[in-house]
Amino acid sequence: MANGSTKEKILDAAERLFARSGFHSTSLRTITTEAGVNLAAVNYHFGSKDALIGEIFRRRLKKLNGQRIKGLEKVRKEAAERKTRPDLEATIRAFIAPSLPLLRSEQGTCFITIVARAIMDPNQQVRQIFLREMKDVLALFFDTLQSALPHLPQDALFSRLQFMLGIMGHTMFNAGKPSWNPLKLEQETGIDILFERMISFVKAGMEAPLE
Amino acid sequence: MANGSTKEKILDAAERLFARSGFHSTSLRTITTEAGVNLAAVNYHFGSKDALIGEIFRRRLKKLNGQRIKGLEKVRKEAAERKTRPDLEATIRAFIAPSLPLLRSEQGTCFITIVARAIMDPNQQVRQIFLREMKDVLALFFDTLQSALPHLPQDALFSRLQFMLGIMGHTMFNAGKPSWNPLKLEQETGIDILFERMISFVKAGMEAPLE
DNA sequence: GAATGAATAAAACGATCGTTTAAAAAGGTC
DNA sequence: GACCTTTTTAAACGATCGTTTTATTCATTC
């Protein structure tokens, strides 16, 4: 897919507009106008609006989850060489860190916004498109977590993994957006500080004692 | 508002259908058909579709946040009498616990689903309607947390509060729904167990050391 | 029981949606 | 330069949306 091609112009425009107004409220006419292409181009190149949505996820998640898998396998390899358990914090970082660069670009932030919404989207197709793309990396992440926290029962660990996904979705969705601000904190918290806070919170939660 | 009145029939039907298909994908025709009333009834009784959405939040959040405030004030009073800091776990429980009964009824679960979506809704009006209803209780919760964790800087605590909201939204949205299941855990985790896990995770995260 | 206002009902309005069609333009091959 | 495929364009299709209008029914009050 050539850079600047019609397909890419559509994908970029759709990414921005879906982030701003959601899947259902963004019309193909708005997308094609923003992209500077003809209305019929979406159905010609992608087949349908749903297929376009799927392609938006596929395009970014392939690289993103590839980095996650590479990071997780590095953690596992190092643990095997040291004959220890995988380091918990390193495991968490391997999953979270690759998403940080996305939040440094406007276009990447749009994608994050879309992902956060897709998890709770009413349209089941949207959720399944996203889940299919995440299945492998989530399985590897869960497995590594289990090795790092061998005393935790599987279903308790699964709950805690879900907690972490909830934190990530909510935090990254709100990053850079004006949201509820209880005491009008002057300076916006930077992304890097936010990520460090997220990691220390999740790490402590993962290590919390069982009732 | 009388029980079984047209307004209530519309609110109940809309709550179910919004949870199933989202705000934008649920038409007034579907709602009024499910409610067994005339199409024009929504605009007559509520003014517009957006106003109906707002009323759905108001109806439940008034009671829900009332219970939260009552619980939080009890925690604060007990701390004042004992001349100690508010108990962290009790503070967290006071905020989370009132939402548990909702998850025990089908209709209440629909409301939870709607709330979780509203937080990330593309429509700014939807988000603001929800935020306005939550502002007071969030401020009181933040203030109590600050008393319970006086060593934490305000902005760090604020981040952790956001993490907790992310956990709540994600967890309660997924409760009772089929979602990603890595190892096909046979039995579904009960709501009560899930809440206890949530509380211990959040408590540990709140108490995590600062970098 | 007539009068007044609230509630319900049926029908239509204008607008917008995703998709399809058919023709024109562009690109590549021999 | 003719031929074929790919891509772009303009126009239309059928369906559905939130809302409004107008008329009718219901309930209440004097």
Give a description of the structure:
2 copies of one chain form a homodimer. Chain A has 211 residues and is an all-alpha fold. Chain A folds into 2 domains: 1-47, Homeodomain-like (Arc Repressor Mutant, subunit A), CATH 1.10.10; 58-206, Tetracycline Repressor, domain 2 (Orthogonal Bundle). Helix content of chain A is 70%, strand content 0%. Chain A is built from 9 helices and no strands. In chain A, helix 1 (6-21) packs across helix 6 and helix 6 (106-119) packs across helix 8. The radius of gyration of chain A is 19 Å and the shape is globular. The termini of chain A are far apart. At the A-B interface, helix 6, helix 7, helix 8 and helix 9 of A face helix 6, helix 7, helix 8 and helix 9 of B. Chain A binds a DNA duplex (30 and 30 nucleotides) through helix 3.
- Report the radius of gyration of chain A as a whole number of Å: 19 Å
**Continuous helix count of chain A:** 9
Q: What would you call the shape of chain A?
A: globular
> Mean pLDDT of chain A, nearest integer?
93
Structural classification of chain A: mainly alpha
Order of helices and strands of chain A: HHHHHHHHH
